[in-house]
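Sample entry (818 residues):
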Amino acid sequence: MSGRLSQDLRFAVRSLRRTPVFACTAAAILGLGIGANAMVFSIVNAVALRPLPFSRAGDIVQVRRRTPFGSSVSFPIHDYLAVAGVRGQVSAFAILDVFAAGRYNLVTADGAEPVAGLRVSARFFDVLALAPVRGRLFQEGDDALATVPTAVITRGYWSRRFAADPAVIGRELVIADRGYTVIGIVPDAVRAFSPADIYLSLPVPQVSNDRTNSYRVIARVAPGTSRAQAEALIDTIARREAQLRPSLTNMPQGIVLRSLQDEFVAPIRSALQLLAGAVALVLLVACSNVANLMLARGLTRRREIAVMAALGASRWQIVQRVLAENCVAAAAGGALGLFITWAGVRWLPALSAANLPQADRIGVDGWVVLFVSAASLAAALLAGLPPALQLSRGDLAESLKQGGDRSGPSGHRLRAALTVAQVALSTMLLVGAGLLVRSFWLLSGVNPGFRPDHLLTMSVSMTPSRYPDSARLGAYTSAVSKRLELIPGVVAASSTPALPSEFPIDFPVRAAGGSPGATDGRAAIDAWYRSIDPHYFDAMAIPLLGGRTFADDDSAGAAPVLIINRALARAAFPGGDALGRALVIGEGYLTDPRGLRPRTIVGIVGDTREQGLRFAPTLAMYIPVAQAPEMITRLVLDKIPVRWVIRSEGAPADLATAARRAVLEIDPGQPAADFASMTEVLSRSIAPARFNMVMLTVFGTLALTLAAIGIYGLMAYAVAQRTREIGIRISLGARPRQVVRELSWHGARLSVAGTVIGMAGALVLARFLRTMLFGVGAADALTMTVVVAIMTVVVLAATCLPASRAANIDPLRALRQE
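Predicted structure, serialized as tokens:
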């Protein structure tokens, strides 16, 4: 058997060498299809299939609070203390800041420099099961309130920042005006969890009444315990706590555990499924194309196959001979596909704009090579079996008599079916790509409620000890904003705790007291919170619809005021004018009586899309920084850097250097970082939609190109087969235009059939795209019309070129052909 297979493979190589154009074409087509599949597999392998680089990574879970709308990762420290006492079924719990990495100021001899850091509790590295490179990692007791603050740095940061100096162990680093003793170096594998360079010990109290959802909780399930068992135990404890202390807990619906890997994959799972399905269709188009080429080539060799049968070859041996050629072509295509994958994965992380988790692990490894090998074998079978079975059936003796250059009706039907399949699959992909393109175009054109052009953004990581309250923070942000406005070309500047499309800070608000047309005195609605400087609305170009903006005399000692957007005004006061009325914010969260004072509405501004361009305008409130509730100020200072928006007359990037110097003039210990235009910020917010659109458009275009090649090849073969017939008809007086029309009509019928089938399939495919679409329906008429037009143009071009050659056939040469 092996000897026969080896003989067939050698014969296949010799046969393909005699037809290099055919061999290269088949290998290139399969290479494109295999390469597209391997590229997507490399993403799926890195982010979903390959385990995280932690021991028994499947036992690491993200603890999530159940909510009426699903579940949330954010926890108040009180709820963490309630569940962290579980023992037995959970080997370790850890609490950490809710953000993947914060921005801190590392004090240096030259001033300060920003560093990515994360505050974690003592068992964090136990949960991840990491061992130190040098020194030790956090251990029980390092997160006690009275313990000396400690820090662990990553190996990469140790090499970059400290030149891998072993003496860094035991050194004190001053971060945010607080000394942290470096106790160890952690492997860079930890970056699979967080991009932080330095991990700081997070003081955890033994008792807390804090209900602020500002932490995350992860845990490790004990060996021999299932995730379901651990979840049932923690869920029971959470529900019992909610019954005992309903005013303190935020987990009345209980707890759910999700594996850490699923936590990373969940946001992009639908996109991965879409891309996997798209490239599978591309491979089917490629296989159909090559099958058509193989069939056309094989039908001209029926005399050779008939000779094999006459000499005693069985049908299986004939099929094996044809499949051997496909295997050789597929092997060459696999090698090309591997190269395409290697080249393609280099730009995937950049295209995804950091929205792919574990993007640094995307590459060509042994699993990708194995996948390419399997895909090549599958392609060889898919592209080889139809022509092999077709060529090995029928009356081979009759083929021996006729010379073997006629395919018969069954051969025509198979080639036509393969062509229709190519057109149908290409149509499906083009409709999907068209829907995403149109959706992205509409999303990009959404009015965010402010002007993103000529707007520079930056961040400053604050030192809480220097600005411990809202009054002093307000004085600092006001001073920085005024200094920025002195820069030539700056129109206005203001601070804000977050930029549009970034993380939400929302609090309940209610109308002060009960009055006609206002919300009930006890009822509350959630609204987004922004603490800002007086010129924020000028910087963002948000229109003032009524009242006034903030002034310098809206200080900490002045009467509490706020500005709301039109959406909140309508929600809170549906039947009356909101100006001059009062709102109470943060009930149930704020404990300081000053923060709970009614705030007079002094202005109403336009609505903005704070959650991102995809979402409707949000309810929003704006408060002067100096009057911000102290708890919120501490939250902002501890967790996130303060953002600035700077309106410029020219290009925003031109202001970055001057803005950096201006910030340092106010406080050399608070450097500015993360400079970006607002256009870039918004672009990053829709990066997932752009990634899906680009990938599906590339695959759709590839499938369309392959389908065009298939139609062209079918028509060219039909012309070659009917050369004598066409010559006779022309010599008998048939007009060339009539011949062209007849051949074109044959190709058009196949195209129409494929397009109709493809449209039906596209309607099914579009149902899976609904969550990715914006502003368009799954059966968008404009998209369907454009796709039909594109398919018509491509089919006409692929059909008319060989048909026009048929019109130029010399009748005498055609008659002498046989």
